[in-house]
Structure formats: structure tokens, C-alpha cells
Amino acid sequence: MSTFNGLPAHVLFVHFIVVLAPLTAVLAIVCAVWPAARERLVWLVLALSLVTAVLTPLTTEAGEWLQHRVARSPLVDTHVELGDTMIFFSGALVIATALLTLQHVRAGRGKALSTMLSAAIAVFVVLAGVGTFVQVYRIGDSGAKATWSEKPLTSVANGESDAE
User: Fold this and answer.
1) Which of 1, 26, 92, 129 has the most CB atoms within 10 Å of its CB?
2) CA 164 from centre of chain
3) Rounded Cα–Cα distance for residues 118 and 112 (Å)
4) CA–CA dist 75, 131 (Å, integer)
């Protein structure tokens, strides 16, 4: 999908990622360190991580479509390079929430994981969550700079250029 109601789809998808990825990361961290929250939220957090993982490649694909329709610049290139890394962070978040879910299911069956393994899962979830949060910020910041820099991007399709 390249456009939606005349707007580049990337602009719309980005808003989902900017909200869902950090929200999922924070909720995953809460579930990792607070068992009562895990009991109530683990399935929601797993679902949110899966939605984020599905939306991430859609967002980057829509961004690549948009990249070919704006003037080239180092700021856009930086944003594209950072955006391409988001799939790794979304994947880590899915793995982290799957581990939390496994921990929750085993505890519900009376087969709790060892303290060492539970601690390792918590550390992984915190690292994946913080990494996701930071990377969403970095990607968003680079996109904002590319879009709203002193010399805004102009459309190549309209015959305009930023090389004036």
C-alpha cells in the first residue's frame, strides 16, 4: 500500500509504530518485573508485540515507496537506514513477550521456571524493551529531521529539488 486517502501510507503506519512499540515495550517490562501484572497483561502484551511485528515491515515498505518520491538527502538516507533496523527490535520484542507468556503458562500449571531462568528472561525483556523504546525514538527523530529540517524535502515528482 503506497497511499491512503491521498496521503503516503508511511505517514499513517508510523503513528501506529510510534505508539504501539513503546507501549508494548513498557508493558513487557512491567510484566517482567511484576508477576501480578504479568498474570493480567501477558496475553495483551503478546498480541501487541505481534501487531507491532506485522506493522513494522509494512511501515518500512511504505517508507521505501515514499523515499523514491522525495528529494534525496543525507537526512532521508539516515532515516531509512535506521528504519530498516526496526524489524530486529520488533522481533526481539516478540521473542521477549513469548518468553513471558511461556513463563506465565508454566507458572499456571505449577511448573514454574527456575529462578535463574526467570531472571534471565526478565533481563532479556528489559533489554529488548529499552532497546525498542530507544530505537523508536532514534528513528522518529531522524524522520522528523528529514521532514522538518531548515530546508524541507520537496517532491521530485513535481520537478522541484533541494539542490538550489
Assistant:
1) 129
2) 35
3) 9
4) 22
- SS3 of 155, please? strand
Query: Cα-Cα-Cα-Cα dihedral of 107, 41, 13, 71, to 10°?
Result: -70
How many angstroms separate the CA atoms of 44 and 41, rounded?
5
**Over the stretch 52-97, which tens digit does the pLDDT of each residue have?**
999 999 999 999 998 888 888 899 999 999 999 999 999 999 999 9
Task: Count CB-CB contacts under 10 A for residue 125.
Answer: 26
Among 9, 13, 43, 8, residue whose Cα is nearest residue 27 = 43
CATH numbers and ranges of domains, the chain: 8-147 (1.20.120)
**DSSP 8-state secondary structure symbol assigned to residue 157:** T
The list of the chain residues with pLDDT below 50 reads 153, 161-164
Tell me, what amino acid is at 35? Answer: P
Phi, psi of 151, rounded to the nearest 5 degrees? -110, 95
Q: Which residues pair with 7 in a beta bridge?
A: 4
CB 132 within 8 A of CB 97: no
